[in-house]
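Q: My collaborator sent me two sequences in one message, no labels, and asked for predicted structures for both. Can we handle them in order? The first one she listed is below.
A: Yes, handling them in the order given. First sequence, followed by its structure tokens:
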Amino acid sequence: MKRLLRWLPLGHVREVAATELWQRRHQVQLVDVRSQREYRHSHIPQALHLPITRFSHERIRALQLDPQRPVVTICLSAHRSIPATRQLQAMGFQAAQLQGGMLAWWKAGLPCTEAP
């Protein structure tokens, strides 16, 4: 049951505001958990991509994240990133989510990679 609760997009996890993330972008690792289509449309530069629907220990390990550096998860509105953050925390990473997701990032007018 405890494992199942980890996958629910409810509750609270540590968050990082968009402007703070922009300032710390070289100190953290970014994992975008949105769909392939969403990621291709627009994402934060240097963000790795692993859709929440494909999240597993094996696929997370394949990202080759540095366990000594914090990880920030990203989704559209900070719901799908909650279970991703919990999963990374359970694996020993210092993880947080982007507060407000990409909606907050876009609203702040911060740089992103967009589809041609």
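Q: And the one she listed second?
A: Here it is, processed independently of the first:
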Amino acid sequence: MPIIKHEIYIEAPIHVCFDLARNIQVHMETTSKTKERAIGGVTEGLIELGESVTWEAVHLGIKRKLTAKITEMEKPYRFTDEMVKGAFHSFKHTHEFIESGTGTAMKDEFAYISPLGILGKLADRLFLEKYMQAFIVNRALALKEIAEKKCN
């Protein structure tokens, strides 16, 4: 099971970073390259514990749908979303926020299992893990930019 970890420092208060990371409109803005949009469940505002959202996006040239549910939340320090339906066999994405100096360290841990058994494992090695790493990093950079503009 691939586990992607990423950490970024954001010059903004922890509560700002936490709320931006779970804001549906901000998610769509930070994933515009994949045309991600909320089409079911919570489709605007802040997603909360126990709520779910269905996303439609274009990944690897194919339009896909995925439903994720918030399974853990400790405001403003951590929340976890898990896939309940979609292209992966499963995934668990933990977002962690730690006050650091005058800002916030934002940590992502994305653990997933690809579908299709051995073929999925091959896809991980050939391209999928790198693709997902870039997706996580690009979203974090976009969140950083939004948070720092908002607070400066």
